[in-house]
Write a structure and sequence with these properties.
With about 250 residues, the chain is mostly helical. It has one domain (about 1-250): Phosphatidylinositol 3-kinase Catalytic Subunit, Chain A, Domain 5. It is about 50% helix and about 10% strand. It contains 10 helices and 9 strands. The chain has helices at about 1-5, 40-45, 55-65, 70-90, 140-145, 160-180, 180-190, 205-215, 220-235, 235-250; strands at about 20-25, 25-30, 35, 100-105, 110, 125, 125-130, 150, 155. The strands form 4 sheets. It has a 3-stranded antiparallel beta sheet with strand order 3-4-5. Helix 2 (about 40-45) packs across helix 3 (about 55-65) and helix 6 (about 160-180) packs across helix 9. It is globular and about 45 Å long.
């Protein structure tokens, strides 16, 4: 996905860290330096209940990026956040709590731990824990020029609404590039079926991606559709509650 977006003239600012298998349930994973989890950011700047506060990520980036570097950091945060919102939406990546999303000091956001995918979201006591299709919470939105979401789910003007608008447009562009390359992406997953991953055992599992790419829509309608998904993610209070429960459980 990163390569497809770069070839289309975009700057996805992703961190596809390297992994190498060395045997059955044994391997190596690249260490991404100068990074921390969003759970740490929430509690470090917002205390035990930091998952409910919108200012924490912006404070974290401001702490590590002074003067003009802060503008670069927020741009990188916005671009990387857009890339991962689209990627995790199309791939149906689950278990997206705040310890599975990280951020580098320079502002680049990235996801880790892809044990659940193709829409296999986790449940607890029969209740679906993840009700949004990807993670885009008010603290992420607040980084983008200080914009934030009011109680009606509307994005309110901050210091510079332009960055949020650029984020939304980039999501639409990223989504449409993947739609243009649907056959390529789905064939890659079909080739992986013999690998024996529990959540990818048959051609029917790959149908999840087919549904998410929605080729029946025009590019304009597809971009509009993804914009609605962004608003849905911002309005999903259960995501913040799940993050709160996770950080309270592990808070020290």
């Amino acid at each position: 996905m990163e390569r497809l977006w770069i070839e289309s003239g975009m700057q996805p600012r992703m961190i596809p860290y390297k992994c190498a298998s060395a045997g059955d349930q044994l391997g190596f994973i690249e260490w991404v330096t100068e990074s921390t989890t969003t759970a740490w950011v929430q509690t470090h700047y917002g205390g035990k209940y930091g998952a409910l506060k919108k200012e924490n990520m912006r404070k974290h980036l401001a702490h590590h990026n002074k003067s003009t570097a802060f503008d670069d950091a927020t741009q990188d945060f916005s671009s990387s956040c857009a890339s991962y919102c689209v990627a995790t939406y199309v791939l149906g990546i689950g278990d997206r709590h705040s310890d599975n999303i990280m951020v580098k000091e320079n502002g680049m956001l990235f996801h880790i731990d892809f044990g659940h995918f193709l829409g296999n979201f986790k449940s607890k006591f029969g209740v679906k824990r993840e009700r949004d299709n990807f993670v885009f919470t008010p603290d992420f939105c607040y980084v983008m020029g200080g914009a934030y979401v009011n109680n009606f789910g509307n994005v309110v003007e901050g210091d510079d609404r332009n960055l949020y608008d650029k984020f939304e447009k980039q999501c639409g562009r990223c989504y449409n590039v993947l739609r243009e390359n649907k056959a390529f992406l789905m064939n890659l997953f079909l080739l992986m079926i013999p690998a024996g991953m529990p959540e990818l055992t048959a051609r029917s599992d790959v149908a999840f991606m087919d549904d998410k790419l929605m080729l029946g829509l025009t590019p304009e309608d597809a971009a509009t559709h993804f914009g609605k998904e962004i608003k849905k993610a911002l309005n999903t209070i259960t995501r913040r509650i799940d993050n709160l429960a996770h950080t309270v459980k592990h808070y020290k």
